[in-house]
Specification:
234 residues; mainly beta; Porin; eight-stranded antiparallel β-barrel; 3 helices; elongated; Outer membrane protein beta-barrel domain-containing protein
Length: 234
């Protein structure tokens, strides 16, 4: 009798163990893509940028990230701009952000449609951008005595608003050990430092503060403690 009870207990324990859904608590990652400013100048160029992340996975569908970015923003043109203004900003930025995926707030098990949408996410963060204007026109071409106001080096608050999709890759235990991310980030700066110009409105039309967007593809590798989750991840 004891033998049969042992076999039953072992079977139940095995099933329970397999019913646990695990994920790694930490992750590192990085990505590359395009940047484009929305500045005070008529022409805004598309350039390149990259980022590096350290993740704390609160759940497999709610990561918090500490992010560093480097990239280039530029706009204007000495020949075609009406005021011959131009700028190049080789910037450095840092932020902390969280991305909430649909899988965290929906019941997707057994639902073909939601299984494929569970990686969609929206995110929000806060940080700072360190502007480094390496090329800019300071004196007006038609009025040399007029100096365009602005700073070559400044620090502005940064609010990244994020929209993207995470494609998870699983190991033999059905744990998401790696993922590929496609992200659109709109960065609000609440300042006039991105382009190095801070002219009064009576000189140049300025309806909004500077901002920029980034479209990136990234990779994430998960590691660390294995944590159980309340439902199937795969």
């Amino acid at each position: 009798m004891k033998k049969y009870l042992f076999i039953i207990a072992f079977f139940i324990g095995t099933v329970s163990a397999k019913a646990q859904y695990n994920y790694s608590e930490w992750g590192i990652g990085g990505g590359y893509g395009t940047t484009r400013p929305y500045s005070d100048l008529r022409q805004n160029d598309t350039n390149k940028g990259m980022y590096f992340d350290l993740f704390y996975n609160y759940s497999p569908y709610l990561p918090f990230a500490l992010e560093g970015q480097i990239g280039k923003l530029s706009g204007g043109n000495d020949l075609t701009d009406p005021s011959h203004r131009y700028f190049v900003n080789n910037y450095l930025a840092f932020n902390v952000h969280a991305d909430l995926q649909l899988g965290e707030i929906t019941e997707y098990e057994g639902d073909f449609f939601m299984q494929r949408l569970k990686g969609l996410y929206m995110g929000l963060g806060v940080g700072a951008i360190f502007n480094n204007i390496t090329s800019v026109r300071r004196n007006a071409a038609d009025i040399p005595e007029y100096v365009f106001p602005g700073k070559d080096h400044s620090v502005n608050a940064l609010i990244p608003v994020r929209l993207g999709y995470e494609f998870k890759i699983y190991n033999y235990d059905d744990e998401p050990f790696m993922s590929i991310n496609f992200t659109y980030t709109h960065n609000l700066t609440f300042a006039e430092g991105l382009d190095g110009y801070d002219d009064p409105n009576n000189h140049f039309k300025n309806n909004a503060q500077d901002m920029f967007r980034a479209i990136t593809v990234g990779i994430k590798i998960n590691f660390g403690n294995s944590v159980s989750y309340i439902k199937s991840i795969r």
